Amino acid sequence: MRTLGAVLLGLIGGLVAGFFLEVLIGLMGELLLDDPDRPAAVALLPPLCAIAGAIAGPIIDRRRDEPTRRR
What we know:
It is a single chain. By secondary structure, the chain is an all-alpha fold. The protein has a domain at 19-62. Helix content is 75%, strand content 0%. It is built from two helices and no strands. The chain has helices spanning 2-33, 45-65.
C-alpha cells in the first residue's frame, strides 16, 4: 500500500512539475524568441515527467527506509 502511495504521489508531483516546465519553456520561448508556437516536444513534458515521477517515487521511498551504511 505504501508503494502505491509513493507511485501516486510521484505521478501527481511529476505531472505538476511537467506542467510547470511546459509553461516556463513556452513563456521563455515567447519572450526571447518572439515565437508563440512552441515545439510539439514541449507538450510531451507533463506525461513524461509524470512517468518519471511514478518510477522515482517508490525508489526514493525505499532508499529512505534503508539503514544508512557507514564506511
